């Protein structure tokens, strides 16, 4: 069983959004074409309460994109984004949702960030996605969405670590930092994951 995980394809992560990923909107048509190739399609949604401690605005005197220690974890300070119930937190309107069987929300605890769709950044709490995939008989996990060097990377890394044969579809994602994405791909490959082009998925 092959699953496609669509990570955080939300209004705030495309140009015009609060935490825009360059060209983030350019993956959506491709992601829609990829969906029929899979037995199961699942999405994640970054879903922060207002005042989340990953927001620079929650730390007066701190700058955007500065790193701080947040309860023992390194934390980038982001612009306010994907606040629960706001238009920026909605899945992008061009994303075909017909085949999405479940949406897993993450980043809901106010004091810890959650890049991965499987666990928070401290691996303290599971979202339930790994167990859901196992329950559905999934053995192979393909990952696409935003952003390549954060939520897509950490989701793929956790999926591989949880025992799924994991594939990052490199042209069905876009990065905040190109250098960060290069490192992410190398790290994933070093841990047994695969980096593939959508052509390898569509031609099967
Ligand atoms: C993300 C930073 C903060 C992502 C989410 O979806 O990659 N990045 N929250
Ligand atoms: Zn976030």
Q: Could you characterize what this model shows?
A:
- This protein has five helices and eight strands, in the order E-H-E-E-E-E-H-E-H-E-H-E-H.
- Helix 3 packs parallel to helix 4 (about 180-190).
- The model has no long low-confidence stretch (mean pLDDT about 100).
- It has a single domain (about 1-50, about 85-200), classed as 3-Layer(aba) Sandwich (Rossmann fold).
- The chain has a six-stranded parallel sheet, with helices on both faces. Strands 3-4 form a two-stranded antiparallel sheet.
- The longest helix is centred in the last third of the chain and has 14 residues, at about 150-160.
- It is of the alpha/beta class and about 200 residues long.
- The relative contact order is 0.20.
- Helix content is about 25%, strand content about 25%.
- It binds pyrazine-2-carboxylic acid and zinc ion.
- Zinc ion (ZN) binds near residues 46, 54, 81 and 107.
């Amino acid at each position: 069983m092959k699953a496609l995980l669509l990570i955080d394809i939300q209004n705030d992560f495309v140009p015009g959004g609060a935490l825009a990923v360059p060209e983030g909107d350019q993956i959506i048509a491709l992601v829609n074409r990829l969906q029929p190739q899979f037995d199961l399609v699942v999405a994640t949604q970054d879903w922060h309460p207002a005042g989340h401690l990953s927001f620079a605005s929650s730390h007066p005197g701190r700058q955007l994109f500065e790193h701080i220690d947040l309860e023992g974890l390194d934390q980038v300070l982001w612009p306010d984004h994907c606040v629960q119930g706001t238009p920026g937190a909605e899945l992008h309107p061009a994303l075909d949702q017909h085949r999405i069987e479940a949406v897993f929300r993450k980043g809901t605890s106010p004091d810890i960030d959650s890049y991965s769709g499987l666990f928070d950044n401290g691996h303290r709490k599971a979202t339930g996605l790994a167990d859901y995939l196992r329950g559905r008989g999934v053995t192979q996990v393909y990952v696409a969405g935003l952003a390549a060097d954060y939520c897509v990377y950490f989701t793929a890394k956790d999926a591989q670590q949880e025992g799924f044969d994991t594939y990052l579809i490199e042209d069905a994602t876009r990065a905040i930092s190109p250098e960060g994405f290069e490192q992410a791909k190398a790290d994933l490959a070093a841990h047994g994951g695969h980096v593939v082009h959508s052509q390898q998925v569509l031609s099967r």
